[in-house]
Each structure stands twice: as structure tokens, then as C-alpha cells.
């Protein structure tokens, strides 16, 4: 059996609007298209990890509504096992996503709904699942205390811990010290360190500052420039792997994190896992959407073999 990836995070229904530009306040413009689909960083990463070959458990909270049914259907289709609680007193999360037609770049507003109530106590209730994890992956869309507790339990159980610090937030050093891997993008790395990241060298300086705060290794995702894997033993820039024209960058970071976690769980070393994550993201950006853009393991391996 493939070693287990446990993901703590949120599901939201993505409402994606493509347009030439973002409207100004008070302005209405015509969009070019609309798509309703599954999203949420935790859910996207769980789908990516499962499609990349992982045995994945998704820990979260949902409402009892149509969006919850969407979540359960998506996870079933991807092979993700849900470990969830549901409440009729609130709603399943939703997100507004604007995609710039000319570039594929995006801007996002997330309303987590039920997942905003995930507590450290909820995480304790999922302790048996976390104890069986080979890799624990979490983010910051659910409350920080819940992510902190999940990292604590995973560390106690001997699992590899990955924190994707998104959305950007300041984090205490004792939480960072629980992270075997921290996976910020450029803006998140800047938010955590105060070091503006405009180049690989900038990313290296920011990553070094994060190591000084106690992080085990840092993987700074650099969009079209790939990733920087930085640790105490080595620092390596891994370029992006192109699978075709970019259609949409929504979910690319989630694709990387899910692929990276699945590879680590299967026994890959840090460099091999990072390359696998880069290839996962490389395929995902050639397709629209977030969860539905995640490639399967065969596609990822074929891209790596071709390069």
C-alpha cells in the first residue's frame, strides 16, 4: 500500500469568471465565461496527491448543501477518502476567482464557511488519522490554531510535515519549527521574512531566513521560474517543466504541493519529490480550473521522462 498523505484544509466551490480585466469599484463589466467547480487549497492538494498516486485522507468540515455534495463527489472521483464533519447550521465554503483572459493570472476571495470553524479540538478528534500519516500537509485557509495542532500531532507521530503558508500570514517561530518543509510562494516568503522575492537569489535569502526560524527545508515556488529547494545541506533551483501553453495558473501551487507530498510519501528524496511536484504543476497549468486540472501519475511520469 502507498504510504498515506493526510491533508488538513478546506473545500470551497470555485466560481471562476474570465474577463479582460477586473472591474473597478462601482463598475459592472461583461465577462467572457463562467465556471462553477471544486476548489479550496486543502481539497485541491488532496485531489492532486491522490491523482499522483497517494493514499489520501482529507480532514475538513462541510455544510449540508449542494456544495458539500460537490465536494464528496470530487473526492470519490479522485480517490480521496473524506474524514469530515457536516453541519446544517452553516454553509460549505465558496470562492470568487477572477482570471485575466490575456495572461491566465488570477485573483481570489475565499469564504471558508463551515471550515472556518475547524478547531484544535477537531484536530485532536482526527488524531488517529494523523497518527497513521506518512506525510501531513496543511495550509492557512482554516484557523491557524488547527494547523498548528495538526503539525504538532504529526510531528509527535513521526510523519513528515508540510505547511503551505497560504494565504500569507505572520507565523510564530515555534510553529515554523514544526515544519519539515515550508512551501511559500514569492509573496508569502516576503510576508514571513520581510525580504522581497524577485529572483532566485532573493528566494534563497528569504529561505535562509526561514531556516534560521527553525524550518527544516524551504521550497519557494516561483511560478514560471520553477521552485527553489533550500536546506542546510544544499540549495537547488529546479526550473519549471513545460507541458504546453499556459491556459490558467489557478491551482498550480496546489498541484505542486499535492504532487510533492505524494512523492515524499512514496519514499522519494527531497529533490526527486520537488521535481515531481514541478511536473505536476507543469501539466496542471495547461488546463482550466483547479481540482479538475490535476494530472494523474502516468501523465506526470511521462512529462518527467520526456525531460
Automatic annotation (TrEMBL):
GO terms for molecular function: ribokinase activity. The active site is at residue 254. Pfam families: PfkB. It is an enzyme of class 2 (transferase). Activated by a monovalent cation that binds near, but not in, the active site. The most likely occupant of the site in vivo is potassium. Ion binding induces a conformational change that may alter substrate affinity. Substrate binds at residues 12-14, 40-44, 141, 254. ATP binds at residues 185, 221-226, 253-254. Pathway: Carbohydrate metabolism; D-ribose degradation; D-ribose 5-phosphate from beta-D-ribopyranose: step 2/2. It is found in: Cytoplasm. Requires a divalent cation, most likely magnesium in vivo, as an electrophilic catalyst to aid phosphoryl group transfer. It is the chelate of the metal and the nucleotide that is the actual substrate. Its cofactor is Mg(2+). Its EC number is 2.7.1.15. Keywords: ATP-binding, Carbohydrate metabolism, Cytoplasm, Kinase, Magnesium, Metal-binding, Nucleotide-binding, Potassium, Transferase. Homodimer. This is Ribokinase. The lineage of its organism: Bacteria, Pseudomonadati, Pseudomonadota, Alphaproteobacteria, Rhodobacterales. The gene is rbsK.
